[in-house]
Amino acid sequence: MKDEGFVDDGFIEETAWEYVGRYGSASVSVLRRLAEAAARGGDKLSAQTWRAIAEAAERILALGVGK
Predict the structure, then answer these.
(1) Fewest Cβ atoms nearer than 10 Å: which of 33, 42, 49, 51?
(2) Which residues does 26 contact at the CB level (< 8 Å), separation at least 6?
């Protein structure tokens, strides 16, 4: 993730794993909805962070985890 704030990559990966564990294959759509809600609320950093977490969840799911 391009660093425009103070969110580290470890947090993103850990959060992605949590969402995959909780929501399985639906996690990416849940995370993208969170990103859109943040964007609609004008919180660009949160929206960017949720998108990065969604991308990490996609990578995790591509490994066959949480399907």
Answers:
(1) 42
(2) none
